[in-house]
Design a protein that fits this description.
Layout lengths: L1 H36 L3 E6 L2 E5 L1 H16 L4 H15 L29 H4 L2 H12 L10 H9 L11 H11 L7 E4 L9 H12 L4 E4 L2 E5 L2 H13 L1 H4 L1 E6 L2 E4 L6 E3 L6 E6 L6
Antiparallel strand pairs: 1-2, 1-3, 4-5, 5-9, 6-7, 6-9, 7-8
Helix pairs in contact: 2-3, 2-5, 2-9, 3-6, 3-7
Protein name: Heavy metal transporter
Length: about 280
């Protein structure tokens, strides 16, 4: 009887282990399927406006707006630029033109034949953004002009009225990404599938917003900034979270957690520093 009881216990243990393994496998499959069901994208909410962009579009919007912030231009300048780029390229750095402008290239479809620079230059988003703002600031009173008028003064498009359809999106994203609207940008993303690099985040951040006091802290990058600039840095990081494997951003008593997908939530933290955390080596 002792032997028979021992075998029974072994069988029960084996069955329990098998069921546990099956449950773990089922849970893993469920989590994988849940990840694939997530529709990735970014939403900006500001001043009663709400707009959505794909993650690559949001990253380009963050770059353009960061250039405006670095040049100390008003958010209105970024609104005009974003509406223009949405119309010209759908906020994507495209390497082709159209029938009206066969040599048009880049975010703003700038034409080398029209004096915008070389093909390589207008394909550089930083150069292209600065070139757009160089022209925009020469337009008298551009801050108070209708977007269609201001954009047309720069672009000389055959379809100037088309810029107006992107005004709401331009305004919402410019307000959030310039830091004028705190916690105005949220991106819904799948779990990071690769390790991030705080150094790479710092390099891209500096290229976009200029020299800022940066400190490495393990898997985090600390950025000394406050007020609108702090929120510009923080929401730049959220907009670039997919490409740079950023998992968390903390600023001014708020936290954005990529995996929680609950937007900005209250969290303890200083008002004069932004913490950007990337995924670790075991991510994915």
């Amino acid at each position: 009887m002792a032997r028979r009881g021992s075998w029974r216990r072994r069988i029960v243990l084996l069955l329990t282990a098998a069921l546990a393994a099956a449950g773990a496998g089922t849970a893993a499959v469920f989590l994988q399927r849940s990840e694939t069901l997530i529709t990735e994208g970014c939403t900006a909410v500001a001043g009663g406006l709400s707009a959505e962009l794909a993650t690559d579009q949001a990253a380009n919007a963050a770059l353009i707006t960061a250039v405006a912030v670095r040049r100390e231009l008003p958010a209105r300048a970024a609104s005009i630029a974003l509406a223009t780029a949405l119309q010209e390229s759908k906020l994507r750095n495209i390497s082709y033109g159209d029938q009206a402008g066969p040599d048009s290239r880049g975010l703003f479809q700038q034409r080398p034949s029209q004096g915008w620079g070389s093909t390589a230059q207008v394909m550089d988003p930083y150069y292209a953004s600065n070139a757009f703002f160089d022209a925009l600031v020469e337009v008298p009173g551009y801050e108070s002009l209708e977007i269609t008028v201001a954009a047309q003064e720069v672009q000389r498009s055959a379809y100037p009225a088309a810029y107006a359809r992107h005004e709401a999106t331009g305004r919402a994203f410019a307000s959030a990404l310039s830091g004028e609207t705190a916690a105005g940008l949220d991106c819904s993303l799948r779990t990071a599938d690769a390790a991030g690099d705080p150094g790479a985040v710092g390099t891209k951040l500096t290229a976009a917003l200029g020299d800022l006091p940066l400190t490495a802290d393990g898997r985090s990058l600390l950025v000394d900034a406050q007020g609108n600039l702090a929120w510009a840095v923080a929401q730049w990081a959220v907009a670039n979270a997919k490409a740079l494997s950023i998992t968390g951003v903390e600023v001014d008593g708020r936290r954005w957690n990529r995996d929680a997908r609950t937007g900005w939530e209250p969290a303890p933290g200083p008002a004069d520093q932004v913490r950007i955390t990337v995924s670790d080596a075991t991510a994915g």
